[in-house]
Design goal:
Layout lengths: L3 H16 L11 H13 L5 E4 L5 E9 L2 E11 L19 E3 L2 E3 L3 H18 L7 E9 L8 H10 L6 E4 L7 E5 L1 E10 L3 E2 L10 H14 L14 E9 L5 E2 L2 E10 L5 H16 L8 E8 L2 E2 L5 H14 L5 E4 L4 H6 L5 E2 L6 E2 L7 E3 L3 H17 L1
Parallel strand pairs: 3-6, 3-7, 7-17, 8-16
Antiparallel strand pairs: 1-2, 2-6, 4-5, 5-19, 8-15, 9-13, 9-14, 10-12, 11-13, 18-19
Helix pairs in contact: 1-2, 1-3, 3-9, 5-6, 7-9
Amino acid sequence: MPPDDQLSRAMIELLGTLVARPSRAGIDSPEPVLRAISAWLGDRGIDHAWLSDDAGRPLGLCGEFTGGRDGPTYLLDATADTAPYGDPDAWRHPPDRPTIEDGWLYGRGCADSKAGIAVFCHVLADMLPERARWAGRLAFVFDADEHTGGFAGIRRYMATRADAPLAGVMIGYPGNERLIIGARGFLRTTITVHGVAAHSGSSSAQGVNAITRASELLAGLVAAPPADADESFPLPPRITPTAIRGGGDYTLVPDTCEIDVDIRLTPAFPEAAAKALVAAVIARLDAARAAPATGIVWRTGWPAYRLDPELPMVRTLQAAATGAFGHAVPTAVAGPSNIANYLATLDVPATAGLGVTYRGIHAPDECVRLDTLAPTFRTYRDALTRLLTG
């Protein structure tokens, strides 16, 4: 393993190369950043393959390496696509120009999760010469479709594995104050509330205002009591209206109003409970029969998950992180969902949120603290060495 200074310089160089290739989800083609990663891997003799959709569009990169003996397979996963820039004028440094200042590197995606890719690439390069000693396999996926919520890269990769099981996945999200072993799930819906159109100034035909009915529905949803948090899952569920669309003319009583609602799920408040709660609130609104029945369209979501903190992968990664960073790294459950929620539906355990120190994810001046690259490298290198040789 190279000295920390040399290792850090190498990871900073790769990270800068990746940040300088914009890969905003739904805006930029991911091909330039994936080609940069592919070139780095190829220069070091690390075999890999491209993941593509049915139309041939790139979704990511992947690879897998076999040890000298049979054993479990562990997967390193990090995302190559990023959030949008927002207002570029709100940035102190251009979001597509990696800039180092006071020990921090600035640029969109440096934290989420191009630093994870830079670390994982160096972990692979450092560990592969020793693979004859492994009892198991080491795989990796760099997904270019995470920030859309589609997870197309990891989904395509998992489809190619068929029945080959994974003992665990380590996701390279940033942050080293805690190791994420669980997260709330989510479910989303668009609700269409109906009214009866009329002239807003009429003295006879009052109509039924769909926006007014929608506000009543929203009040009922927000007041509806979902399940409480418990000791095994410390975060409560949440119902959040996120958009409302209706009306359009001062003289017209609106006859439709659409509402988008985000619902955060927990083990005590799963999808079925959420749908039943929303249905009950809608039924109360429609009971008056003042307008056509309310419509609802459900979007695909993911369930909540929580790993057993005694899993070997969790305990080993937690111990390695505590040693590398020099402070306790407890396990925790996160509010936002992540790729691990999807993997949980396949019965594949996944950790997240163990990486570099960061600021400003999805905000102006996203940055990472460069002196945390080496401890992140040591965390994963040491944990994987123990898991694959122990």
